[in-house]
Amino acid sequence: MRAEQMDELLSLIGPELTRQSTNYRAAIEPKQRLAVGLRYLASGDSLVSLAFSYRLGRSTVNNSVHMVCAAIEKGMMERFLPRPTQDTWKEVAQGFWEKWNFPNCLGAIDGKHVTIQAPPPTGSHYFNYKKTFSIVLLALVDADYRFRVIEVGDLGRISDGGVYAGSDLGRGMETRTLHVPPSTSLPGAAHLDDLPFVMVGDAAFPLKPYLMRPYPGQNLTHQKRIFNYRLSRARMAVENAFGILASRWKIFHRKINLHPQNVDTLVVAACILHNFLLAPSENQRLLDEEEQLGRHMAPVRNMGGNRASREACNVREVFCTFFNSPEGSVSWQDRMV
Q1: I need a surface site. Which of 28, 85, 208, 215 has the fewest CB within 10 A?
Q2: Where are the beta strands (DSSP E) in 119-206?
Q3: Distance (Å, whole) CA 224 – CA 295
């Protein structure tokens, strides 16, 4: 983080970190609290280690981390992770068409496990299929790896559609309350039916008219394999976003030893800081670092079923037709399948 970015961050949340000095002790400077909180996120060091490094008490370090994360969530959410509008969705869709060759796309969606230390009285609530304890980060990402919608805090054991279906995003898309633009024709293909705007996800998600997943099975036609490739290519946006997030904030490579409610706030703060610091010139370097370290944020599995409505299947068929037509094909797709 550059000094200018640090100063801007301090100007945004500094008042929330300020405390009154007393006759017994001077209050910790907001800048030092911010430095401690960012160091915890960026290094993944334990609170005890940070206390020694900064010559502060462990409780002071603990409070500083919580204060910084809460201040970021409170003071920066509206600016760096706002609720999408119809214009926002159109901007995201334009970005996916230009950079990932997928039209009418509202974003790439995926879920990741954030590993935590098992809270004592919770039994197996946070126990997931990877045999670790975790909470789930569900994210919708745009073409530039920016988080547009996140849902944090579901128990690691939840599966079979629970994470997505129970999220504000899932319910909002189902009830059509998220200001999604109306259906429109695909670029250069007015002869095809108007199609709704859709999210793209992997096979763990259910097929919906507004959520595309790959065709299942091995013995697919060439046209269906083309569709799966194009969808998988667009999905790289969310995988890369998670990679950049974990590369910049090494806390995601560790087992977080905080109360689950505080972990929720920490993850939201990290996502907001990700948007705040996002720079195209640094993305590839961070992705290369994460590739060397290996991905430690395990994907969520078994979130959706295989049954889908006829409408959803028809939408996928039209996309498949488009990607195999002169208007929607790309020159390299036949080599990739």
Answers
A1: 85
A2: 134-141, 147-155, 198-200
A3: 29
Helix runs in 108-165, H state only = 162-165
Instruction: Give dist(CA 295, CA 252) in Å, integer.
Output: 10
- Are the CB atoms for 179 and 84 separated by under 8 Å? yes
* Residue boundaries of the structural domains of the chain: 3-80, 86-336
**Topology of domain 3-80, per CATH?**
Arc Repressor Mutant, subunit A (1.10.10)
Separation of alpha carbons 34 and 96, rounded Å: 35
Inform me whether the pLDDT recorded for 28 exceeds 90: no
CB atoms within 10 A of CB 74: 13
Q: In whole angstroms, what is the distance from residue 31 CA to residue 14 CA?
A: 7
Share of the chain above pLDDT 70, in %: 96
Examine the pLDDT at 177 and tell me if it is beyond 70: yes
Distance CA 37, CA 65 (A): 4
DSSP H or E segment with residue 172: helix 168-175
Task: Give the pLDDT score at 292.
Answer: 78
What is the rounded distance in angstroms from the CA atom of residue 240 to the CA atom of residue 284? Answer: 9
Is there a contact between 46 and 62 (Cβ–Cβ < 8 Å)? no
| Res. 143: pLDDT tops 60 | yes
- Identify the band that residue 192 occupies on the pLDDT scale cut at 50, 70 and 90: confident
**Burial track 97-129 (b if 16+ CB lie within 10 A, e otherwise):** beebbbbbbbbbbbbbbbbbebeeeeeeebbbe
Amino acid letter at 165?
A
Model confidence over 29-46: pLDDT tens digits? 899 999 999 999 999 888
Fill in the amino acid letter for 225: R
Rounded-to-integer distance, Cα 183 and Cα 179, Å: 12
Nearest residue to 108 (alpha-carbon basis) of 142, 82, 152 = 142
Write the pLDDT tens digit of every residue in 215-255. Answer: 998 889 999 999 999 999 999 999 999 999 999 999 999 99
